[in-house]
Design a protein that fits this description.
This protein has a five-stranded mixed β-sheet with strand order 3-2-5-4-8. A hairpin with a 2-residue loop joins strand 4 and strand 5. It is built from three helices and eight strands; from the N terminus they run βαββββαββαβ. It has one domain: Sandwich (Hypothetical Protein Aq_1857, Chain: A), CATH 2.60.300. Helix content is about 20%, strand content about 35%. It comes from Sphingobacterium alimentarium. This is DUF779 domain-containing protein.
Length: about 120
């Protein structure tokens, strides 16, 4: 099956650093507003996905949720979680005090990949 989510080496290192400080984590990517569409990292349970939001994969073992409306727009795209130096627009994510921000790079799946995508989990 084709994964919907990958994580860069830099993002993996930051996830492990945050895990050491905060324990189990989770990710949520909203569809806009103050946090834009940047992924936010929270302590596990620090954010509750809305009904029908989509969990597209695991980032170093931690759930990566996407707003239901954003997923409808990006359901045919592969996500690569990366990290950059600087502050994201919202500042609610756990990496903010470290002067870092998570970012997603997108690429569209080709026709063959679309036939074998991993299923998504929907919140209830």
């Amino acid at each position: 099956m084709i994964k919907r989510l990958d994580v860069t080496a830099e993002a993996k290192a930051l996830i492990h650093e945050l895990e050491e400080k905060h324990g189990p984590l989770m990710f949520y990517q909203a569809g806009g507003c103050c946090e834009g569409t940047q992924p936010q990292c929270f302590e596990k349970g620090g954010y509750f996905p809305r009904m029908n939001d989509a969990m597209i994969g695991l980032a170093e073992g931690y759930e990566f949720w996407i707003d239901r409306d954003l997923f409808e727009y990006w359901q045919y795209a592969h996500f690569t979680l990366d990290v950059l130096d600087g502050f994201g627009p919202g500042g609610f994510s756990l990496e903010t005090p470290l002067g870092k921000t998570f970012k997603v790079h997108y690429s569209l799946f080709n026709e063959e990949e679309l036939k074998d995508l991993e299923p998504v989990k929907r919140s209830e």
